[in-house]
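Item description
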Amino acid sequence: MKFPGKRKSKHYFPVSQRDPLALPEPEINEAAGAYIVGIDQTLVDIEARVDDAFLARHGLSVGHSMLVDADAADRLNLELMEQASITHQFAGGTVGNTLHNYSVLADDRSMLLGVMSSSISIGSHAYRYLCNTSSRVDLNYLQGADGAMGRCFTLIGDSGERTFAISPGNMNQLKPECVPEDVVAGASALLITAYLLRCTAYEPIMDATLVAIAYAKKYQVPVVLTLGTQAIIADRPEWWQDFIRENVTILAMNEEEACALTGCTEPLAAADAALAWTDLVICTAGPDGLYMAGYADTGVKRETRHPLLDGALPAFNRHEFSRAMRREACEQPERIYSHIKPYMGGPGKIMNTNGAGDGALAAVLHDIAANVYHRQQLPDSTKHRASFLTYSSLAQVCKYANRVSYQVLNQHSPRLTRGLPEREDSLEEAYWER
């Protein structure tokens, strides 16, 4: 497994001989592996430029998000194709985006559970979904269904206002019996989104999600929840707080979702509040950067070598060189925090904000899977002298997540087409390996 990205190595001559002082290389267990599994509403994002007359013809309200049935979506798509108005088409879904990015970063396997059209023709939306998904994402457990897959039309009008037409298709029809227990049991983490938990009674994907969560809890697999949008959380924040407390290990959100969940307008304060319900928090805050909050045991915490930062909490990053742990794994749990400004100040021109948070979460999941993989191969390593959740320190995970977000913001697609450029190991990493 690459982690995270290619490493630059220094070679000493003669390169054909082993260093007699070096420790023997560990035997690698090829059968062992670390992967992430996720459940998603599989859909394709279609972006087009239209005039207001087009929106009126299709009964769409400018600037709003509306559900349309399959026939209406077909008519809409046909006219867009006839007018050559479509500018971009991407495989979508927050979990699908995250798993794709994880597999690109790790160059390793992830597994997607969801629904896919049984019959796929060249050029169809299902075909485009598959073409825009990394070959490292295992799609063999998708549930086949007749009919169209989910489609989300982003229609940019004359004024630049975005109007959304969403055709669910079969994206919410994942059945509980199509969630394999052994796949969830062997995963490094189970990734879900808040969208899955607001479906109606006749849409089985919510029950499938709850079954997957039950399997994850049974086998001590971390459950990772990404919140989706502010509106979903603002409808019933107390319900979400209880759900997170009972089921979620890692929580990912942006500053608006964080405010809706906790009532705190300051991202660090919101992340701190969320630690009452979960073990690790990732909060993206737009131009303010990225915050992380978690737990570490007093006996293994590490002080930062970076300047101390003040915010909602004084000198909050004092122990950001610590590795995150589950609270229940700590004898004396202490809260740890880290923050990073946008990489290089952020892109000169932001191409698309959609997917930046998913990119950051993919980096965090890569770090968690790397920790599982390393523990499988070298269980006696000092890296595992405690039951850590992450491979790297909170500060280093922040740095990695921030870099991936930059890469996504700098392109139009929410899905990475390649891994990150080569980088040198940081001083902080060397500090950790002492």
Notes: The domain at 36-42+93-148+172-432 is CATH 3.40.1190.20 (UDP-N-acetylmuramoyl-L-alanine:D-glutamate ligase).
